[in-house]
Amino acid sequence: MKKDFSCFMKHLIEFKGENTFNPWNDTNPDYEVADAVSIRRNNLKDYFSRRLGKAKILLIAEACGYQGGQFSGIAMTCERMILNFHPAVNSEMILGRKGRRTSRTDSPFITKTTQVEKGFNEPTDSVVWKACLEAGLGPDEFILWNIFPFHPYKKGNLLTNRTPTDEELSIGLSYTKELMEITGFLPIFAIGKKSETTLTDAGFQVTGLRHPANGGANIFRAQLREAMK
After folding, report:
1. pLDDT above 90 (res 187)
2. Which terminus of the chain, N or C, has less C-beta within 10 A?
3. Alpha-carbon distance 79 to 91, whole Å?
4. Which residues contact residue 76 at a Cβ distance below 8 angstroms, ignoring those fewer than 6 apart?
């Protein structure tokens, strides 16, 4: 491991951006429990500690989403997985321990019954995790990341997603390069065109995969399965 993970975490924590939520430093008491930031930092640390030295591939999508990494602190991983309410993925696979939620069960701004009872769920996260497992990868044999690791949201509404700007993608690339040094430059699978273009323009060789959203789930599964052969 060429670089220390603690330094990488420190760099992530330092980020500040307009209309952007940093899961490892920002918090909003309207939606979150008091120790949300600490929970998410520990989640990311435990997630990587189980995978560094074991992972075979690195899958990089576009950006953190409000239904996924914003509350879990882990790319393409939702609260429902770490709370053991997901049918295919559980906290042992992700963290090696029981997970804790950061979204408030009593938030007046979280009104969907299933979100209150079981935490947030992101459909894309489910597709990616299940596809990796079905392709024969063990839970610790792939690392999930986003080219822009933070959550870009529409102005004034934290529970929304927006496409990261070119400037944000460039900023995110610097974090991704640092991560690659830590993981030892694993084979890279880019999920979606934003990720693929950003990485290839920077000179990286990647395997491009269709993003699972907007009807692309079956194509994504087939492409990953074929690539893993």
Report:
1. yes
2. C
3. 9
4. 59, 61, 68, 69, 122, 124, 125, 128, 129, 144, 146
